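Following up on my earlier message about nickel (II) ion. Here are the inputs again, as you asked, copied directly from the submission form:
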Amino acid sequence: MIVKILWVSRIDQEGAAHYLTAMALLSIILLPDPVLRLTAAKIERVDDDLRKLADSMLETMYDAPGVGLAAPQVNVSRRMAVIDVSDKDDGEERSPLILINPEIVATGSGTDAFEEGCLSIPDVRVEIERPSSVTVKFLDRDGKPQTLVADGFLATAIQHEIDHLDGKLIIDHLSRLKRDMVVRRFRKLARGEV
Ligand code: NI
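Thanks, got it. Here's what our run produced:
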């Protein structure tokens, strides 16, 4: 089992100010907003409006910064997510992935554990063991069916984002006590008590 810290999400006060000025940046929904717990609806049509949403989600994800963002996190309860696990610090080119109606159709037998963060739960990281490889079917931004075999951190990111579409969050992997503590803290934050 390998454990790596791969992404850290945070509340960025200056970043938050951009949301008011740049139209393409979307507000990220935080715990405990109930939209994060819904099962997102299947997307019936890939059209320009959906592509625009996907592009805005990518911009929002890069700005945050994060490596994945699911539509429910921007208050759209539909089955779409964006991911880019390329290492920008290493000068790697961006490699954005748009997953529409993604579905895992096979998993490898091994597992990997990564410490995962989530833009909707800033400053919380949870070590989660998941299948180390997955085969995912989805529609791309042109509505064409695609099949991708992913392993390593990309496999984890895909599973994390698909969990969002089913209303599942990283805190569901914590003990009930720890999960309740996190939820209480974010409820207070939402009420402006912290
Ligand atoms: Ni997340």
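One observation from looking it over: The first strand starts at residue 68 and ends at 70. Hope that helps, and feel free to reply on this thread.
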